[in-house]
Amino acid sequence: MLKTTVLNAAHRALHARMVDFGGWDMPVNYGSQIEEHHVVRRDAGMFDVSHMCAVDAVGPDVKAFLRRLIANNVDKLKAPGKALYSAMLNESGGVVDDLIVYCLDDTRYRIVINAGTTDKDLAWMSARLRDWRLDATLTPLKGGREAGMIAVQGPNARTKVWAAAPEIKSVTENLPPFFGVQGFAPAYGELFVATTGYTGEDGFELTLAADQTEKLWNALLAAGVKPCGLGARDTLRLEAGMNLYGQDMDEQVSPLDAGLAWCTDLASDRDFVGKTALLAQGRRYAFLGLKLLEKGVLRAHQKVRTQEGEGEITSGSFSPTLGVAIALARLPSGVVAGDKAEVEIRGKWLPTQIVKPPFARNGKGLL
To answer: 10 Å Cβ neighbour count for 252?
Structure first.
């Protein structure tokens, strides 16, 4: 039996094409995936992300817990509401999951983890909390039951969210990227509004009570926000150069080999799970982008041939913004942006350009 979010009936009423996504019954599109992609780059689209799991971490030792748990450093979170992207590692330096941490204050944090890894993540975090004997509690708001979450993304996202929930404009009008804030709207109750999108566009992620989520979804529809499925979400995040857990990284791949050195703190004296392994291994691969120079389709696991040796595509697709096939790839460490490479497609080696992601953001192609 597939799990469902609180918006399942709303998706079906809109004739969404539903698929099994990591055990969840989720919309892949509502018609044209390419049109949904373009509406996010050009106007405003929304995604049901209620399957994601928010975990409220509270207690006098919660900051000490997070300092040891994740590869990025929560000491960077100086202002209430500031968010931090990081990886949670195992002892060998592999990625248990990637996540976002919001600092509410020094004793309260909110952690958002991936839907497909929720049970594994909660078990891992709970075990570390017991091992370290720290005074903190973890309370998950499991997706689709205790809370709903809607991501509204695009250049007109803010204006249309304020049309649907005008009362939150005062607390979100000047909210910078990678922040979260509590707001209240009489029609929907308490909302947690964040600016940590997964598309390379401006917008909000709105978390609220499960029984109020469909009402907000319908108000956003009435304000002109178009519903978008997982298909467009994947091409948008790929164009934005954002990793997908399970494809671009997993428990056998270190953040240094997944292009995540920028959110891995190896410089400070702080210790964290996996740090010793990362220092011993170093970066073994280059994680870069590919642009196909001929017609064809780029997909995960296709072989890549470079002057430094072979690599592999981790994520690939057609880019609606650029009109060409693009990919993220794990390549030999000596490869740099600007080099040429070839990709094996159906027994043929086709030319590609190695580039530095992102491919597109803020409505524009960057190549």
So the answer is: 11
